[in-house]
Amino acid sequence: MEDRRKRERRPVSAVVIALNEEHRIVPCLESLSWADEIVVVDSGSVDGTVALARRYTDKVHSVPWKGFGPQKQAAVDLAAHDAVFNADCDERVTPELAEEIQAILSGDEMLPGYSVPRRTFLGGKEIRHCGWYPDRTVRFFDRRNARYSDDIVHERVVVSGRVGECRHHLLHDSFSGVADLLAKLQRYGDLSARQMHEAGRRCRLSDVLLRPPFAFFRTYVLKLGFLDGFEGLLISATTAFLAFTKYVKLREMEKTDGEVV
Fold first, then answer.
1. CB neighbours of 228 closer than 8 A, spacing ≥ 6?
2. For residues 221 and 164, what is the distance between their CA atoms, to the nearest angstrom?
3. Is the peptide bond before 27 cis (omega within 30 degrees of 0)?
4. Which contiguous run of DSSP H or E holds residue 40?
5. What is the crossing angle of helices 178-198 and 229-256, to 10°?
6. Mean pLDDT over residues 50-64, rounded?
7. What local confidence, expressed as pLDDT, does residue 110 receive?
8. Contact 52, 42 (CB under 8 A)
9. pTM, whole model, 2 decimals?
10. Which of 25, 49, 91, 225 sits CB 3.0–4.6 Å from 130 for a disulfide?
11. CATH homologous superfamily for the domain 2-174
């Protein structure tokens, strides 16, 4: 009876994008063993990422980097099945979430998309505030009714139709410590500035003066970051720094283009 249910279940593809992720791709791929296939799209890793990925799947593709949204959509397009689950290399699917997804796949109806809550950790400590929880994002969807936005950073799944909610969590080991947090924020700042520049946004003096302190206030006070202790203070401060750097970088891009004298 169990084998029959498995055959009747909708097949699902798990998709992952990667770049130099040898230190954390294995736990991610191991947590996706319940999927009918795993598709990994690599954008030029120079470490052992590709070799490690090939231990878990023969669907490893090389695609030049075009931004988070286009990269994830490329992975979705390469999948064999319409039901798709996306995980990042710093995420792990819990057994409970895997069971919940398989129950949906075995049910009479599958909605166009499902959001998934994430438990995020900084240096091993779970962050419950700062706007980091539950941090729901659509990760499980039917690609016939959903696709990734073209955003190069802060990408999202655009769903045509109703979005359901999964109860169980992804585990998000996003930052191993302060150095990792700062490095990632630097990259996000670069990409955010580029995205704003391409959209025609301009940097005003008020952006540089007001947005960083408001970002700190919003994260530390309004989103209760102070309840996360030192880590909450660190996150709030680096969030403010990100707001500062992305607008300064936007200003530099304007000067390079001759838009600012």
1. 125, 127, 128, 129, 130, 235
2. 30
3. no
4. strand 37-42
5. 40
6. 99
7. 98
8. no
9. 0.89
10. 225
11. Spore Coat Polysaccharide Biosynthesis Protein SpsA; Chain A (3.90.550.10)
